[in-house]
Design a protein that fits this description.
Blueprint: E1 6-9, E2 12-15, H1 17-67, H2 78-88, H3 94-98, H4 106-134
Antiparallel strand pairs: 1-2
Length: about 140
């Protein structure tokens, strides 16, 4: 009995060269698509990772500032906050960005930075879940 893409030749079922080339082309296409998806995920992770690193460093400095008894964040921190706001402008809401400023209580700015990080981590989880489900992979329970 012969299958749809197979031919009988001397009693053996064999693939035609044309059909084999189609399978190879399809496999190559799937590999390229998977590679592009991987590169996109990597790029998105890096785009989120940089602001998180900057916020973590700033939170650390703010904790030291708070332990020293500083009531408010000095204006000297504004360039760092501006850099973070620029990196985050497409990743979080403008309301969250507006709350990242100097001359507020140290603890308040730390809370705002933690809230922004939580937003970023949540979006990373959603993106990872969507990507893994689309590829047929599911996270372990």
């Amino acid at each position: 009995m012969a299958c749809g893409g197979c031919q009988r030749s001397d009693g053996d079922a064999t693939m035609t060269p044309m059909k084999t080339q189609g399978f190879v082309a399809q496999a190559n296409s799937e590999i390229r698509a998977a590679q592009e998806a991987h590169e996109h995920r990597k790029s998105e992770q890096q785009r989120v990772r940089r602001p998180i690193e900057l916020m973590d460093g700033l939170i650390n400095d703010l904790e030291v500032l708070n332990l020293r008894g500083a009531a408010r964040v000095p204006m000297a921190y504004e360039p760092r906050l501006l850099q973070i706001r620029v990196l985050l402008r497409e990743l979080v809401s403008s309301d969250q960005l507006d709350n990242l400023r100097a001359r507020v209580r140290t603890v308040k700015l730390m809370d705002e930075l933690y809230a922004v990080e939580e937003t970023l981590f949540a979006s990373m989880r959603v993106q990872f879940d969507d990507d893994s489900q689309a590829s047929g992979l599911y996270p372990a329970a």
